[in-house]
């Protein structure tokens, strides 16, 4: 009998001996993935270090797995930095990432590490601004409209309205 969780979950699977299988072979062999986020339509957004560090996207293949991952955008994952923990809006027209790994000699041009908001336009992803928050990761939006994130090991929240974000 399947065990039910009181917390909402995005995916569940009945686990039995030998039932484990990769859902995205290309994601887990050529592109070791972390910080994966699924959308309701099945699209998978994740951070990978190879072939270059940044945000990738993989689409369902219709056979219970995923197709080859593709690079999301040079605008989102800037060369020489590490952009990770993508938080995609349900409409997939806005996203928030954590940016780190910014070389000291490029900090003035790229901005400090932290959370960055992007919008998709006809020209592609556009950097809107850095959020006025401390450096953090693991962001999500709570049902009550608060932005939840980890800062130095502590959970923090900030109202989206105060951050000026229409989510």
Compact summary:
The protein has 167 residues and is mainly beta. The protein has helices at residues 25-29, 107-110, 160-163; strands at residues 33-38, 44-48, 54-58, 70-71, 82-88, 94-100, 114-121, 124-130, 137-141, 146-151, 154-159. The protein starts with 24 loop residues before the first helix and ends with a helix.
**Beta fraction:** 35-45%
Number of helices: 3
Number of strands: 11
- Tell me the Rg in angstroms: 17 Å
In words, what does this structure look like?
It contains three helices and eleven strands, in the order H-E-E-E-E-E-E-H-E-E-E-E-E-H. It has 167 residues and is mainly beta. It has a domain at 25-136: Neuraminidase. The strands form three sheets. The protein has a four-stranded antiparallel sheet with strand order 1-2-3-4, with no helix packed on it. It has a four-stranded antiparallel sheet with strand order 5-6-7-8, with no helix packed on it. A three-stranded antiparallel sheet has the order 9-10-11. A hairpin with a 2-residue loop joins strand 10 and strand 11. The model is unreliable at 1-16 (pLDDT under 50).
List keywords for this structure.
167 residues, mainly beta, Neuraminidase, four-stranded antiparallel beta sheet, 3 helices, 11 strands, disordered N terminus
Q: How do the strands and helices of this protein lay out in sequence?
A:
Layout: H1 25-29, E1 33-38, E2 44-48, E3 54-58, E4 70-71, E5 82-88, E6 94-100, H2 107-110, E7 114-121, E8 124-130, E9 137-141, E10 146-151, E11 154-159, H3 160-163
């Amino acid at each position: 009998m399947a065990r039910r969780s009181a917390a909402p979950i995005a995916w569940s699977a009945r686990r039995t001996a030998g039932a484990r299988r990769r859902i995205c072979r290309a994601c887990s062999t050529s592109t070791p993935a972390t910080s994966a986020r699924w959308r309701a339509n099945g699209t998978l957004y994740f951070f990978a270090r190879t072939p270059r560090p940044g945000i990738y996207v993989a689409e369902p293949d219709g056979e219970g797995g995923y197709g080859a991952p593709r690079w999301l955008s040079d605008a989102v994952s800037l060369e020489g930095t590490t952009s990770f923990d993508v938080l995609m809006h349900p409409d997939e027209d806005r996203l928030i990432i954590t940016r780190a790994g910014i070389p000291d000699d490029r900090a003035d041009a790229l901005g400090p590490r932290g959370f960055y908001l992007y919008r998709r336009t006809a020209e592609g992803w556009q950097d809107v601004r850095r959020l006025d928050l401390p450096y953090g990761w693991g962001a999500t939006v709570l049902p009550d409209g608060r932005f939840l994130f980890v800062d130095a090991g502590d959970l923090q929240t900030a109202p989206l309205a105060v951050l000026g974000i229409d989510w």
